[in-house]
From TrEMBL:
GO terms for biological process: response to antibiotic. Residues 323-337 have a biased composition (Polar residues). Residues 27-250 form the ABC transporter domain. This is ABC transporter ATP-binding protein. PROSITE patterns: ABC_TRANSPORTER_1 (PS00211), ABC_TRANSPORTER_2 (PS50893). SMART domains: AAA. Residues 313-337 are annotated as: Disordered. One of its GO terms (cellular component) is plasma membrane. The keyword Signal does not apply. Keywords: Antibiotic resistance, ATP-binding, Nucleotide-binding, Transport. It is found in: Cell membrane.
Length: 337
């Protein structure tokens, strides 16, 4: 597993509830295992999420995302390992309104209005936020009188989001919340989530959409075969798998000299332009600008999709040959399983 410093330092070390020990994690999964017959859906998964983090849980079909989410919500029991939500069992955390979820499905009654649906749901909670407030926060304050059956897919997901906000949870869990929505629906849904998260709520979401993880998460956790294979900011995860290319204009440069620069994994010369593949673009850029006559320097990162494919494929080590994750500012451990 690769862990970056972001995984440790992304959020302030605070707890949100009175009486809770400082440093209590929002979510702590340790050594989680869950099999269905011969299928190891979750196979030794560890994850710690601090209060206030927005974490994307990304992985290919069958990676174990939903099974993990089911266990952290207490909907499935782990075969081994532990789940703690704000230092409690999932059942306790849910009973106390500390965690709630927006799942992909979940029956909505089509003949009720949006406001009636939220009012009905609120009646199941001992304490809840006012209906008008959660509708506003979910960005559907003007849809209270609309029949649920007349709402678009995106509006129905924002209704589920409003319902999840009723207990004012500290941790909100979203399992592929925008599957099937059009681009506009997804944009509006995330705008509402983002605005709400700015108030400090911890959010863990599973998604298939790489651009959602890229755009909305502080931290991306890549899972494969039921385990975490990479963990860091989106930029760090991209950098881990694919490295970067530093290019510059440097007439007369020789590839063998460029390849010897600290941090360069591979060097190419195309006319006056040099292209240096590296997992430490800062060091390489600094060298070019301070020790050579290079001008017009550019640093290009490869996309999260490249990292996703590389890190979750079964073809082995995705790093370019010759690279080694030794940059202490971005990596704390360095193997990809
Ligand atoms: N109830 C079940 N019975 C049998 N196998 C299951 C069950 N639930 C999940 N699995 C299997 O466990 C593995 C992990 O599934 P899971 O749904 O957790 O993956 P996922 O990452 O959420 O996938 P997707 O992105 O396709 O939703 C898969 O091989 C799946 O077929």
């Amino acid at each position: 597993m690769i862990t970056t410093t972001a995984a440790r330092d992304a959020a302030p070390d605070v707890s949100t509830a009175a009486g809770e020990r400082p440093g209590t994690l929002a979510l702590e999964l340790r050594g989680l295992h869950k099999s269905f017959g011969a299928v190891r859906a979750v196979d030794g998964l560890d994850l710690a999420v601090r209060p206030g983090e927005i974490v994307a849980f990304l992985g290919p079909n069958g990676a174990g995302k939903t099974t993990t989410i089911d266990m952290l919500l207490g909907l499935a029991r782990p075969d081994a390992g532990t789940v703690q939500v704000y230092g409690r069992s999932p059942a306790q955390a849910i009973a106390q309104g500390r965690v709630s979820a927006v799942l992909q499905t979940g029956g909505l009654l089509k003949d009720l209005t949006v406001a009636e649906t939220v009012r009905l749901t609120a009646s199941f909670f001992p304490r809840s936020r006012p209906v008008a407030e959660v509708l506003d926060r979910a960005g559907i304050g003007d849809l209270g009188g609309r029949r649920v059956g007349a709402c678009s897919g995106g509006q129905q997901q924002r209704l589920r989001f409003a319902m999840a906000l009723l207990p004012d949870p500290d941790l909100l869990v979203l399992d592929e919340p925008t599957t099937g929505m059009d681009v506009e629906g997804r944009r509006e849904f995330w705008a509402a989530i983002r605005a709400d998260a700015a108030r400090g709520r911890t959010i863990v979401f599973a998604t298939h959409y790489l651009e959602e993880a890229d755009a909305y998460a502080d931290r991306v956790v890549l899972v494969r075969h039921g385990r975490v294979v990479a963990d860091g900011t989106s930029a760090e995860v991209k950098n881990l798998a694919a490295g970067r290319i530093v290019s510059a204009t440097l007439p007369g440069a020789r590839p063998e000299v460029l390849a010897a620069i600290d941090g360069v994994d591979r060097a190419e010369v195309r006319g006056d332009r040099v292209l240096l593949h590296t997992s430490d673009s800062d060091t390489v850029a600094r060298h070019l600008l301070t020790r050579t006559q290079a001008v017009d320097l550019e640093i290009a990162g490869l996309g999260l999709e490249d990292a996703f494919i590389a890190l979750t494929s079964d073809t082995g080590d995705p790093r370019p040959s010759g690279t080694h994750p030794t940059n202490p500012s971005t990596l704390t451990t360095g193997s990809i399983r």
